Amino acid sequence: MSQEPIYKEYHTYLKLEKSLSENTISGYEQDLTKLRDYFLIIGKEPKDATFDDLQAFVFEQFKSTNKPRSQARILSGVRSFYRFLVYARYIDNDPSELLEMPKQDYSLPSVLTVEEIDDMIAQIDMSTAQGHRNRAIIEMLYGSGLRVSELVNLKLSNIYQKEGYMLVEGKGSKQRLVPISPEAMKQFGYWLQDRNQLDIKPEYVDIAFLNHYGRQLTRSMIFHITKTLAREAGIQKQISPHTLRHSFATHLLQNGADLRVIQQLLGHESITTTEIYTHIDIQDLRQAILKYHPANRHQ
Fold it and tell me: In 43-165, where does DSSP find H-type helix?
């Protein structure tokens, strides 16, 4: 069978599902052209690639640039294409998952203020079922620090409403108990009433958040919801569901929560990851030294 339909579907996926800009789509498709050319040379179709094939391709591409950002973009393009192939059920497993990103300078993601989060929530039309769902989504992302993948895969059977906890499955299928704030639980209760009116497909009966077709929400839909609310609230920062997770951790730290508690809540295996995730404003650091260091006790 010709591979052309796959690439047309991929373009549609990037444009509609991922909501990427034309420039980003163009960059991904340029990398895909290089990938196709490489596999033409070795006599295979890209969809039949193994991890070793992709590692060899990436190595060849890295020879032409030693810039970490350029290398990262190439890897991002490769991963995007293979995530699509899994999403569209052309392949069962993603051979690009274990490809390593080159080390590059870390830049901290944006953090929203409490006021900005309130402004986003204020944009939600609470007269609709979709509004109840979206409010519950924002409350859980910010109120519990969930990853977007954890949110879309959250099961009703793992939400313990009376106890105020949910069992979350994170990276590497590791599970953790995460508290749910009273406000998030209240909003989730409103959504449950609307959810019960949907024609839910059998395979999604235990999935907490659904679209109006009764199917599981996609990651790209959660990105769309958060970006739309931020834009309508007049927020100029780069916003994603990850921004709400980072804001959750940062606000906890700034208000005195122990770093190891935040580590457990976020599901980080290493405390080092949490330290990177939860930056503190330099003025806060300066005030901590002035207040607590013994050298300043007589000042």
Answer: 51-62, 68-87, 114-122, 129-144, 148-152
Q: Is residue 11's pLDDT more than 80?
A: yes
| Active-site residue flag, 10 | no
To the question of pTM greater than 0.90 for the whole model, the response is no
Residues 4-10 have a mean pLDDT of 86
Task: Report residue 291's pLDDT band, with 50, 70 and 90 as the boundaries.
Answer: low
Token pair 């640039």: residue: 65
C-alpha separations of 142 from 34, 53, 110, 267, 281 in Å: 40, 40, 14, 15, 20
Mark whether 246 is an active-site residue. no
**Whole-angstrom distance, CA of residue 81 vs CA of residue 62:** 18
Of 34, 83, 242, 279, the catalytic one is 242
Our measurement of the distance from residue 262's CA atom to the centroid of its chain's CA atoms, rounded to an integer in Å, reads 18
Got the DSSP string for 100-125? Answer: PPPP----PPP---HHHHHHHHHTS-
Query: Does residue 279 carry a catalytic annotation?
Result: no
Of the CA atoms within 13 Å of residue 137, those in its CB half-sphere come to 32
Two tokens, residue 54: 């992709």
- Quote the crossing angle between the two packed helices 51-62 and 22-42, to the nearest 10°: 110
The token pair that represents 161 in the structure block: 């409403």
Q: Which amino acid is at 104?
A: Q
CA distances from 273 to 17, 22, 106, 144, 167 (A): 30, 33, 12, 17, 22
Residues 6+ apart with CB under 8 A from 21: none
Catalytic, out of 18, 135, 147, 251: 147
Which residue among the candidates 133, 219, 251, 268 is catalytic per the annotation? Answer: 268
Residue 231 appears among annotated catalytic residues: no
